[in-house]
Amino acid sequence: MSRLPTVKLLINGEFVESRTEQWREVINPATQQVLARVPMATAEEVNAAVSAARTAFASWKKTPIGTRARIFLKLQQLIREHMKELAAILTAEQGKTLADAEGDVFRGLEVVEHAANIGTLQLGEYAENVAGGVDTYTVMQPLGVCAGITPFNFPAMIPLWMFPMAIATGNTFVLKPSEQDPMVTMRLVELALQAGIPPGVLNVVHGGAEVVNAICDHPDIKAISFVGSTHVGTHVYHRASQNGKRVQCMMGAKNHAIVLPDANKEQALNQLTGAAFGAAGQRCMALSVAVLVGEAQQWIPELVAKARSLTIGAGHDNPDLGPLISCAARERVAGLIAKGAAEGAKLELDGRHVHVDGYEHGNFIGPTIFSGVKPGMAIYQQEVFGPVLCLLAADTLDDAIALINANPNGNGTAIFTQSGAAARKFQEEIDVGQVGINVPIPVPVPLFSFTGSRGSKLGDLGPYGKQVVLFYTQTKTVTSRWFDDDASSGKVHTTIALR
Ligand code: NAD
């Protein structure tokens, strides 16, 4: 046990061993092999990380834009060079397929590329002669120490949503990765230091609820970006906001697709199958509900056949889907499948009894499909976060839109249709953050902002795109007047008007 590698903390530019007595294991979900031990950092260690970030902020905020930008140019190059290695680490600890692991890293890499453009993103405004000889301008200044708390399902992409943009805008950062799969995050952090991030500008602490609460309470942390479940995110939002911090929480989902009978059937069913079962359904943008409208209800047998044909296995063998993150997650999903059947949904395909040769202890669940699902059933009310697709029926597009808008979550949605008018109506009336039109997982590229509606998001600004520059900066508005040497002395004015 003690010979296992330990995941280090990063404090003030040094990778250090935690002094904690509380550790948990990082486990390969396909084999149950213990890969490493991760510490639950002590209160002193969290304080040391914040203190290092606070000290580093004094000089980092004054570091020239070009210097900041070039670090991220270098980091994107290093990530590209290490893509295969990063994907292999990610697959071993998280379970997703190697191809999907590369996708995870790549979607984060896009944000690093965007951070390298910071020079054109963090620009203020200027107006000349707002009054006679008076000019007004704004600058977007960094906030100070910011923190990020990330989930297990995208251990590369989501940390890369956070620290590059926070640091590029002139802040310093404390990252708290998921304790379930922190190893690829740490490799990315090593590359970030190699790219030139100075000591104290990026720090990492590990842990669970206690460390997260310490981050929410720490008076020197100005802003928190959280991605994870609705339950935890709501807690983080309230606790940190009450402590005066700026907070954004991207949270849970129940993403619906509408399939209209005029859709390109083959395309729609392929896309739906991939988006429901890819990454074993452990994506916040997974399509976990399909609303089949009218004649499309007759496509169920073909959908089931496609789902049945998917291969399941250890991620490094590149099957279609790998295992769930943990034994507990597998048990939870299997329990919800049992509940769905007990509550009267029709189990069209049951993935609970898959067997993967050579990986008998893996946390596998195969593609599972329920038809006849109704609001109120547990499999519909809860985010399953496994390879389980719920099929509901609707008579019309209006009924389908009403159903989606009545769901508490509003993360992602998609419509499959060949009708521009139907797609436009859907886009306009649906209350969901990310909308796909014949695109099943519409995660935006970083030129735009990731968002979310209703129960899927708390806080006003998204984690990347233009919105994140606003999130990580505060606007300072300067009004200035310069007197010519020969300006007349004028007289005293006691009104608020600028003269
Ligand atoms: P989680 O909420 O369990 O964990 C997220 C983070 O919170 C982790 O760092 C964890 O250590 C910490 N945490 C866990 N329990 C805590 C507690 N009681 N108090 C304080 N902190 C705690 O989420 P997860 O299971 O790692 O990730 C899956 C969830 O994340 C799903 O709900 C998924 O939809 C969501 N997610 C959302 C988005 C999005 O952009 N909307 C993206 C990815 C994942």
Biggest sheet, strands in spatial order? 14-15-16-13-12-18-19
Would you identify the regions where 5 or more consecutive residues have pLDDT less than 50? none
Shape: globular
Q: Which structural class should the secondary elements be placed in?
A: alpha/beta
How many helices? 16
Radius of gyration: 25 Å
The biggest beta sheet is recorded as: 7 strands, mixed
The hetero molecules present are: nicotinamide-adenine-dinucleotide
Distance between the termini: 75 Å
Residue-averaged pLDDT: 97
Instruction: Estimate the helix proportion, in percent.
Output: 25-40%
Structure summary, number of beta strands: 22
Strand content: 15-25%
Fold and architecture overview:
By secondary structure, the protein is of the alpha/beta class. The chain contains 16 helices and 22 strands. A 7-stranded mixed β-sheet has the order 14-15-16-13-12-18-19, with helices on both faces. A 6-stranded mixed β-sheet has the order 9-8-7-10-11-21, with helices on both faces. Helix 7 links the parallel strand 8 and strand 9 (202-204). Helix 3 runs antiparallel to helix 7 (183-194) and helix 4 packs parallel to helix 6 (157-168). The protein starts with 8 loop residues before the first strand and ends in an 18-residue tail after the last strand. Nicotinamide-adenine-dinucleotide (NAD) binds next to helix 8 and helix 9.
